[in-house]
Amino acid sequence: MDTTNATDPARPALSAQDTDELLIRELVARSQEAQTDPEVLPALHTSDLVLINLAGRRVFGREAFASAMTAALASPLKDVRTTLEVDDIRFVRPDVAVVSLTKTVHDERPDMQGPSDFPSTGAMTYVMTRGEDDDWRIALAQTTPIA
Fold first, then answer.
1. Distance CA 31, CA 35 (A)
2. Is residue 142 part of a domain?
3. Which helix (H) or strand (E) holds 143?
4. Where in the sequence is the domain holding 42, given as residue range(s)?
5. What does the CA dihedral 61, 142, 44, 27 come to, rounded to 10 degrees?
6. 94: closest CA among 68, 129, 118?
7. Alpha-carbon distance 59 to 10, whole Å?
8. Between the chain's N and C termini, which has fewer beta carbons within 10 Å?
């Protein structure tokens, strides 16, 4: 996909940073779409990923993440989905970005009795890196509950 709009003379070409922001937003959207696919979602992360979830559990590495995700999808947590909204993207270097997001939890478990024990909103931070293949990946994902 040509994200530079260079083939349309009526639209100016995007800067490198604007193109990267677009690619990062696309990666966030793909990660949200893949939240129930334990093969696709981990592949959007670096092999040495660090993940801290809403409950404070730390997971180290893509393989551990895939295992934890598979276990969660075999439990009632399969009915808990999340949506992500990008609030800000800051480039630390051309190949490293800090992405601030708002994560909203939708607990759709059929046997829920009242509200969940966890907040329904979190402040999420991704650290994304661009690899040698020029693709952006999530290297760190951390969610802080919002009361």
1. 6
2. yes
3. strand 136-146
4. 16-108+120-146
5. -170
6. 129
7. 47
8. C
Q: What is the DSSP letter of 117?
A: S
Higher pLDDT, 119 or 57: 57
3-class SS at 1?
coil
130 in a domain, yes or no? yes
Using pLDDT thresholds of 50, 70 and 90, give the confidence band for residue 121.
confident
For residue range 37-90, list pLDDT tens digits in order: 999 999 999 999 999 988 899 999 999 999 999 998 888 777 788 889 999 999
Strands of 58-60's sheet, edge to edge?
Answer: 58-60, 45-52, 136-146, 121-130, 96-107, 80-93
Please report whether residue 9 resides in a domain. no
d(CA 132, CA 14): 22
Angle at 79 between CA 74 and CA 82, to 5 degrees: 115
Give the CATH number for residue 39: 3.10.450.50
Helix H or strand E segment including 30: helix 16-33
- Residue 8 binned pLDDT confidence (cut-offs 50, 70, 90): low
Residue 92 and residue 139: Cα distance in Å, rounded?
14
- Closest residue by Cα to residue 105 from 128, 124, 125: 124
